[in-house]
Amino acid sequence: MKWITREHVRVDRVACPWLIKKFIDPEAEFIFVPANQVEAKARELGARPFDIEGCELGHHGEDVSFNSILKKFNLPDPALVLLGEIVRAADSHPSNPHPAGEGLRWIAFGMSALGLSDHEILAREFIVYDSLYAECKRRLPRTGNDVRPAMGPTAQTRSDCNLPDMPTTYPIA
Questions:
Q1: 3-class SS of residue 135
Q2: Hey, how many other C-beta atoms are within 10 angstroms of the C-beta on 150?
Q3: What is the pLDDT of residues 100-154, one digit of tens each?
Q4: Handedness of CA 5, 52, 42, 133 (dihedral sign)
Q5: Residue 129 and residue 107: Cα distance in Å, rounded?
Q6: Burial of 94 (0-12, 13-18, 19+ CB in 10 A)
């Protein structure tokens, strides 16, 4: 399916494509156009709009587009919900922002400052969302239903990969 939003991606317009590709539509194609062309191009191309004013998969109250997509596609994974809180804090001004949001905002604006195309930013920044998702899963209490691989590319933590613990502090040179 084709998905369309405003050009010049930053937080929510990177987080949403990551979420869509990973959990909804692995074959998704993303189109980025000037804000004033999104609705017309969406109709012309049969694309689903997201993160534009007034659309179903946009901001609603304190929810950002990432949260709207979680709800629309019934993705109740607690780690995704936690990641949604981080995205919300980075992309908007919620009443109770998650502290990791500020770091994500810095990363997003730093990526934008590199002068990359929207698709190049997605390609480079998806690993950030993979990492945040892994950390969200790690920080949540495990339930009896958790199944985590022992090794391989889908392992989520250092201990899952049988790697040694890393120091928590590093000497300053």
A1: helix
A2: 9
A3: 999 999 999 999 999 999 999 999 999 999 999 999 999 998 765 554 433 334 4
A4: positive
A5: 11
A6: middle
